[in-house]
Amino acid sequence: MTAPAFLIRGAKLEDYILEMQNITKEFPGVKALDDVNFRVKRGEIHCLVGENGAGKSTLMNILSGVYRHGTYEGNIIYNGEVQEFMSTRDSENAGIAIITQELALIPDLSIYENIYFGHEIMDGKVINWNQTIISAGEIMKKVRLDVNQSMKVSDLRVGKQQLVEIAKVLSKEAKLIILDEPTSSLNEDDSQNLLNLLRELKEDGVTCIMISHRLKEVVGIADTITVLRDGTTIASMDATERTVSEREIIRYMVGRDIENIYPERTHNISEEPALEVTNWTVFDPASDRTILDDINIHVNKGEIVGIAGLMGAGRTEFALSIFGNSPGYRIVSGSMDIEGEPKTFKNPKDAMKAGLAYVTEDKKRNGLILIQDVKFNTTLANLEALLNGITINENEEIIRVGEYKDALNIRATSIAQTVMNLSGGNQQKVSLAKWLFAEPKVLILDEPTRGIDVGAKFEIYTIMNELVEKGYSIIMISSDLPEILGMSDRLYVMAEGSITGEISAEEATEHRIMAMATKTEEVDEDGD
Amino acid sequence: METSRNIQGSGGLINEVTTLLRTRMRDYAMYVALAVIFIFFGIFTGGSFLSPRNITNLINQTGYIAVLAVGMTLVLIIRQIDLSVGYAAGFLGAMAATFMVKFGIPIYLVIPMVLIFGMVIGLIQGFTVSYVGVPAFVTTLAFHFIFRGLLSLSTQESGTIRIDVAAYNNLSNGFVPDIGSVGGLHLVSLIVGAIAVVLAIMAQIKQRKNLLHYNFEVVSLPVFIFKLIFTGAAIATVAVVLAQYQGLSWTIVIVSIVVSIYNFMMNKTRLGRYIYGIGGNQEAAMLAGVNVKRTMLFVFMSMGTLAALSGILFTSRLQSASPIAGQGFELDSIAACYIGGVSTSGGIGKVGNTIIGALVIMSLTNGLNLMGIGISYQYVIKGAIFVLAVAFDVYTRGRKAI
């Protein structure tokens, strides 16, 4: 476990549980961290913010032993002792636990098995399952996970899975917990629960380092906020003494003031509908339930229509079902018109031909081919446009992809750069380029700015504005309330597979949206 | 963040070469392996491995594995596997023999018939994998046994079927007729060699021009010239060595045609892009409008057809169809792919490089045979090299991913 108490010298005015001093880490050709200093007080919630590529994850990977001692310069002083972690195991033994964005749970095992996976409660040489179940129950109570401990993790929604992760690190008696974007995949409610839980853990003396892009949360919860930019520490602010504003943080993050996060656009909405979906009811044979119930939605030319709602409201399923229904749902009833013409699609290809495009929520999983380059990804959905007989006209391809790269300001060394090596924001732009290259009429953007930094967000919004000004239509699915309010002309709210409200941009407020999105909250329970 | 856009900008020539060696280690490894094997066997067989006769022999021997490996490259790129190809080739070869010897069907009918039959076999397996959804490992393992059984059945009565059709046997043993000779060297192979050198150099220069025109990263001029000289010299050496024996074999012609077709398909057509796309990220490819199932079906059909061609080349080479023909071909062809740089996690691979991989594998077989090492030891050695090749692949790609 941790260092003996007598080693914690001079409990002076400030008691730091962790000091990372002069950390420098280089990768071939890149200096990811340059002389970074990072100090965390015992028992505080310390938020670490910065744009993508600023070095947050690298710093945390050094702390947790992913990059072992010797691969970086500088010192880690934890509990008053210099640490030389050679693996994550070492840091865990010292009481440091990291919860990454991709949860490290085993979906087909039960909650209690997951909590004690890797540090089982033993009775001699065999596992003491009775004690495991009892202990798991106690820890679950602490993290307010009020479900049966023998439920499979895969039957829980993401918010509750996150709680299992926290229960797991608590069971290891972690004293310092690092959370990497813990709320990025959570809905508003689950986020609040999680943040409340962190506050409670703080009362119990647990120290948290939280990486987050959601600045609103950061200013709400942080005791200290440290901003990294380009691998250096820009500022460390004590939020207990004074109120730190989001604006101040943004200024440190990007090195300039961003006046308006949501750029202005000329509204030029036509009366003509671009896409109209009526009485859309969809049944999912895999989960044996109706996942979409009588959805009616329309988008006009030149309009940005938002679809707000909580995670699991059925928004992605709706997008997939109209975009050629690749998951193989059963469309029970409903019709779809594009520019006034009725359409039915057998596969995504049909939907593309009719002028739909769907920029997926999870680019890594189903949006991009990461091992291929910018060029390959950009043209994949519309190689027809480059055909010269049966061969692809590669010269034209290079020229046209170059145009898209410039127009969308994709920051890559060239269009031959592998997409894997681009930042999240630039990957998202490649995703957009791919679908714009397919020349759609209606773009469905599913969580277009999740996990990307403020600067890149602004660029994506600007691109969206340019598109609608040119007469494209956009459906934007987003769980980020300020974003959906800032960008939409009109918006729908979904809950539990149906539309629970339609509001114009002027009437919409965060409260109204949340009220509509949670209308049926009482029946919301896991597993059924 | 701006990284240097041109390698030559980041320091002298030595610097560039070391960077290239480090980052492209994976790409160059197969040439190194080939060179090591050639030197090793050159020494331990007292030079007979490097004789023009044996080199010609080696190339003809490589033919039937090379065509299988070409098909396997596509299969592995889309993250599938085909374990049935060995006995499929054996069975289809036996079928060709039976058609010709027992039924007296003429060769110009037999070859297309067998190729089509191979395609149908691929169709059945591909359908089972992509439309029914049985994993390729399971499907093709089952067909491995089915073809093994069918091969035994078709050679049961007669044992080994001897083929007495000269034209057929010529496919793997014959040479392109010569039009004259220069100082005892075959003229045709010298001419073809010279043309190949010119074409290869021109293609590379054109590609470099293109890259420069579009501002892509290129290697510096000295390195480029070295590459040109190296490529030219390699092709020229092969041509001269072949010219010293009987010149250009039909196997080389057939394999070259197959490789050209597949190279064209993979690099220049939509289908090729789709295959790489599916291998890179199947779901993303599907959402980009790629018909994943149909493309997979095509890949298996192409594999079946090439298995038939492999069976034809092999029976032609032995001038007979044996009851154990095709045993272990699947391992050889999969190994050829991995040595040739096909990624074990799919999405990456080049048909041309697979041929080099096939040459590496067959050089081993050939050299070990020349050294008089028994078949049992050969299995052990080849198995070990297979694992090493894959381990090397995983290791080098893992380093790249940082």
Briefly characterize the structure:
Chain A has 528 residues and is α/β, with parallel strands linked by helices.
Question: What features would you describe in this structure?
Answer:
The complex is a heterodimer of chains A (528) and B (402). The longest helix of chain A has 16 residues, at 188-203. Chain A contains 17 helices and 24 strands. The model of chain A is unreliable at 1-12 and 520-528 (pLDDT under 50). Chain B has 402 residues and is mostly helical. Chain B has 2 domains: 12-174 and 249-401, ABC transporter involved in vitamin B12 uptake, BtuC, CATH 1.10.3470; 176-248, no CATH class. In chain B, helix 8 packs antiparallel against helix 9 and helix 11 (270-280) packs across helix 13 (292-318). The two termini of chain B are 17 Å apart. Chain B has helices at residues 13-23, 25-44, 52-77, 85-101, 107-132, 136-154, 166-173, 187-213, 221-244, 250-268, 270-280, 282-287, 292-318, 329-339, 351-370, 375-400, and strands at 161-162, 181-182, 185-186, 320-321. The chains are: A alpha/beta (528), B mainly alpha (402). The interface between A and B is large, with 43 and 33 residues.
CATH architecture of the largest domain in chain B: Orthogonal Bundle
Terminal-residue CA separation of chain A: 40 Å
Number of helices of chain A: 17
Beta strand count of chain A? 24
Percent of residues in helices of chain A comes to 25-40%
The biggest beta sheet of chain B is recorded as: 2 strands, antiparallel
Number of strands of chain B: 4
Annotated CATH topology of the largest domain in chain B: ABC transporter involved in vitamin B12 uptake, BtuC
What is the CATH first-level class name of the largest domain in chain B?
Answer: Mainly Alpha
Apparent shape of chain A: globular
Summed over residues and divided by their number, the pLDDT of chain B gives a mean of 90
The spatial strand order of the largest sheet of chain A comes to 6-9-10-3-11-12
Low-confidence stretches of chain B: 1-10
